[in-house]
Amino acid sequence: MIQILSPLLGESEQEIRSKIDEAKKENAFSGVAIKTNLPHETQLEILARQKELKGVSIEEDIIREYPEGEVFSAVCGYTGEISSDELAKPEFAAYTSGDFIGRAGIEGSYEDELKGKKGRELIEVDAFGKEEEVLARQDPESGNSLILNLDFALQKKAKEYLDEGIKNYGASGGVVIIEKVQTGEILTSISSPSFDNNLFAKGISQAELAKLLEDPAQPLFNRAISGTYPCGSTIKPMVAAAALEEKIITKDTKILDKGAIQIGAYRFPCWTSSWGLAPHGLLNVEEALSQSCDVFFYTIGGGYENQPGLGVAKLKEYALKFGLMAKTGIDLPAETSGFYPDEEWKLKEKGEPWYLGDTYWISIGQSYVLVTPLQLNNYLNAIANGGKLMRPYLVSAIIDENENPMFNYQPEVIREGFIASENLAIVKEGMRKSVSEGIIYPLRNSKVAAAAKTGTAEYGEKDAKGYYETHAWVSGFAPYDNPEITFTVFLEGGGASNNAAEVAKKIIDWYYTEGQNRGS
Question: Topology with regard to the membrane (predicted)?
């Protein structure tokens, strides 16, 4: 029988025999799924050869179908066949060989809600394995359904503009996140390049899986929650808020930018020096945010001459308060924590003491600072909403097969009250000026007044000309007067920060024009 099935199913005799043996270990009298998603022609041939294939049957089953698979795959995830190792564990007692379980994304997080209960039949068969009579039956129970916060049309449009930006700016990948300011509901979460999760639903072949796993673009990797990257100047609103809260500066404190800070033999330049531009001169905090002045943030981060700075301990304290050193707790598996260094870590990991220059670099989001795009978006969301760090979430409700509500998710505040509202107002105004009169030119003529901060984050090694490659970031909120959404666009290796801002402008403009004239 196995010799006949092997060429029909396109699987080796050993593969088929292994599946049968594994199933027998679990239950000698239970059926085993040898192959799923059979072509119609193969089904007909098996039926035509039933006399040679005693005990072999073709059964209907339900499989996942994902509309717009590549658009939603990072969020929805995929299912995969349960392994023999998993079947041996108590928590998988309700599963049998051949079952599919959630492996990633929402499929993985909500497996228990989605799976339902299997039906069972006790069947009498004759000596040849032919079914004679159903002796007992237990009907199956459908799994529950999930209602997501995602805006279907916005997700599609954001993916379109992101992929366009990745191509235009030579980026290796990218992320778009859009979050509701007051609640933490995720309207859009995109990681690109992506994959079609329908491949997994149909039973992915080893060749197809190997192609995805070996792809250097890492389509299975969710950059939005699992990737950690230097964030560059997008850290500056946090540093400004911390300095105001700790009374290191006031709204009116002015710091002189001469183009660089010189500490002994070490020079810490403002970004203007790299472009051959004049120094910013005297700036207050709003102006420093508007122009993204590095010298201002070196100074309030580490101190210089008569101006005290926060110091590494306080910087790390506020990174923790803003959620940059912990998982956000979003309802997805495989989320990664960010990283903010300190003296103890550097001594242990690098065998070096902490220098003032290290404090300067982390004050502008460089050196060892790493964040996920979701963490960055969520920290700026706390600035937009007046100081509430929300737990971002994707699933709004669970309903049964009759659409009766089983559970409704409510917004959750992780932390609040750690920054005075008047200090946040100053930071928000600086972010608005960064758009209206500062360096974020692409958003200046947007359809809605936005406030934002960009970041051109260096990474890797210097090239032959002495330059680093850079990630492009923009993160902000809109509308400015009554914030509704917080947005982040990240282009991995995407060059200058305004490349990300160009992508963000297209998404925001669509959302506040065409996006307002359709259903979600």
Answer: Single-pass membrane protein
Q: Residue 246: how many CB atoms within 10 A of its CB? A: 17
Q: Do 8 and 42 touch, CB atoms closer than 8 A?
A: yes
Rounded to 5°, angle at Cα 471 from 467 and 475: 140
- Nearest CA-CA partner of 473 in 175, 273, 183: 175
Residue ending a domain, choose from 61, 81, 96: 61
CA distance 36 to 362: 52
The residue assigned the tokens 């979600």 is: 520
Q: How many CB atoms lie within 10 A of CB 18?
A: 13
Q: What's the CATH code of the domain at 120?
A: 3.90.1310.10
* Residue 162, both tokens: 């992101």
Residue finishing a domain among 61, 86, 106: 61
Residue 104 to residue 120: CA distance in whole angstroms: 28
Same-domain status, 27 and 121: no
Q: Which amino acid is at 108?
A: G
**Whether the predicted model's global pTM rises above the 0.85 cut:** yes
For residue 430, give both structure tokens.
């600086």
Where in the sequence is the domain holding 24, given as residue range(s)? 1-61
Using one digit for the tens of pLDDT, what is the confidence trace for 303-351? 999 999 999 999 999 999 999 999 999 999 999 999 999 999 999 999 9
